[in-house]
């Protein structure tokens, strides 16, 4: 139940933040988590619900692609776990 509440809050914050991005602008969604529901699934759900947005390359030298974003892990990257997505508003 706690994870569900956090995921719902993250989705709301992402949606609220997106309202302040002008067309052609970029929103970076990042979480310090390895849990797919907080990272990859969150970005995928946002893009599915907001067809005027698309994912853009994050352009990091570390990590690896993970859906519409990029995942960094302690095992592969020697850091805390992070998910980062760069989302662009088209119109």
Q: Could you characterize the architecture of this molecule?
A:
The chain is an alpha+beta fold. The protein is built from 3 helices and 5 strands; from the N terminus they run αβαβββαβ. Strands 1, 2, 3, 4 and 5 form a 5-stranded antiparallel β-sheet that branches. The longest helix has 17 residues, at 2-18.
Q: Specify the structural class.
A: alpha+beta
Proportion of helical residues = 25-40%
Coarse morphology: globular
Secondary-structure element pattern, one letter each: HEHEEEHE
Q: Give the amount of beta strand, in percent.
A: 25-35%
Number of strands: 5
Keywords:
alpha+beta, five-stranded antiparallel sheet
SSE topology:
Elements: H1 2-18, E1 26-31, H2 40-49, E2 53-56, E3 64-66, E4 69-72, H3 74-77, E5 82-89
Antiparallel strand pairs: 1-5, 2-5, 3-4, 4-5
Would you summarize the structure shown here?
With 91 residues, the chain is of the alpha+beta class.
